[in-house]
Each structure stands twice: as C-alpha cells, then as structure tokens.
C-alpha cells in the first residue's frame, strides 16, 4: 500500500509557528516520525508540502492510479478550497483529513471543512499522532474494501 501525505500552507513553518498551538516539532521532524510509523505499519509513504493551492490540486491529481490513500492536512485551505475538494473527488483515492490542532475548539471560520466532504475520516487535535491514526484508518478501510 502506498500513501501520499500532503501538508498545505504554513506547515513548513512547524516548530516556529505558534508553538502553543502546533508544538515544537519541525516539518522535517514530522516527516521523519510519520515515515518511521509508516514503515512500522508496512506502508510506503510519500510526502508533499506546498504553500500553493494549485500545486496541492496537482499533487492530488498525480495520486490518481499511483496511490492507495491520501492523508491531507491542507492547513487554512481546508476552510476555503473547493478546488482541493474537487480534486479529491476527481481522483476518488480514499482520503483522511488531519489537523495538528483541535480545530473544533478554535475560531468559527475553522469549523468549515470543504475537503472533509471528500474524506472518510478526520483526526484533529492529536498532533503528529493524527497522521498515524489517519494511516491506520485508511489501511482498515482499504483492507475491508478488498475482502
Ligand atoms: C491546521 C488548522 C488550520 O485551521 C490552520 O489554518 C493550519 C493548521 C492544523 O493542523 O491544526 O494551518 O490545519
């Protein structure tokens, strides 16, 4: 099984940006941790980060026929991007939504998730663990679909 782990705008600033909300782990540290967990789970993980909406759309499109699952933390685009929602729908690769912070307890504008409409599940407020739980859920869903 092969998963694409997508991180959107400002997630490259992890470790620097609002550490009380997002913690002190850097983006490279996150990748290292999630890659090790992917190996433990027996899946292949490819990582992609961009601050640009169109590049995130392209990365999702390129997952078509190549990836078994997508783990996506689209950052602020979560709350605004119909283009990312449409891309996820277009490829229909099973996708899981992740947020490091607990968006449910934050501002009203973070309560909307467009891309969530194309995701099987959502993990928020679990920090780096959310990415691992997302991979575990995708593995379960894909295995159930294939039996
Ligand atoms: C975030 C939550 C978003 O609302 C915010 O815009 C981010 C990060 C998170 O991981 O908690 O950039 O996706």
TrEMBL record:
Entry binding sites for substrate: 73, 79, 86, 100-101, 110
Domain of life per record: Bacteria
Keywords assigned: Amino-acid biosynthesis, Aromatic amino acid biosynthesis, Lyase
SUPFAM superfamilies: Type II 3-dehydroquinate dehydratase
GO aspect biological process, one term: aromatic amino acid family biosynthetic process
Pathway(s) this gene product operates in, as recorded in its UniProt entry: Metabolic intermediate biosynthesis; chorismate biosynthesis; chorismate from D-erythrose 4-phosphate and phosphoenolpyruvate: step 3/7
Known EC number: 4.2.1.10
Catalytic activity: 3-dehydroquinate = 3-dehydroshikimate + H2O
Positions bearing the site annotation: Transition state stabilizer: 17
InterPro entries, A to Z: DHquinase_II, DHquinase_II_CS, DHquinase_II_sf
GO molecular function annotations of the record: 3-dehydroquinate dehydratase activity
Catalytic residue list: 22 (proton acceptor), 99 (proton donor)
Primary role: Catalyzes a trans-dehydration via an enolate intermediate.
NCBIfam families named in the record: aroQ, PRK05395.1-2, PRK05395.1-3, PRK05395.1-4
Entry protein name: 3-dehydroquinate dehydratase
Organism the protein comes from: Ruthenibacterium lactatiformans
Gene that produces this protein: aroQ
């Amino acid at each position: 099984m092969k998963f694409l782990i997508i991180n959107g705008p400002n997630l490259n600033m992890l470790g620097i940006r609002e550490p009380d909300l997002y913690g002190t782990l850097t983006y490279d540290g996150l990748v290292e941790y999630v890659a090790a967990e992917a190996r433990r789970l027996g899946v292949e993980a490819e990582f992609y980060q961009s601050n640009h909406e169109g590049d995130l759309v392209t990365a999702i499109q390129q997952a078509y026929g190549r990836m078994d699952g997508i783990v996506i933390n689209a950052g602020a685009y979560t709350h605004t991007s119909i283009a990312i929602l449409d891309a996820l729908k277009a490829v229909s690769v099973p996708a899981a939504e992740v947020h490091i912070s607990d968006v449910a307890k934050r501002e009203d504008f973070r309560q909307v998730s467009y891309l969530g409409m194309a995701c099987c599940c959502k993990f928020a407020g679990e920090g780096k663990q959310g990415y691992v739980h997302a991979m575990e859920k995708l593995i379960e869903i894909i295995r159930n679909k294939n039996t």
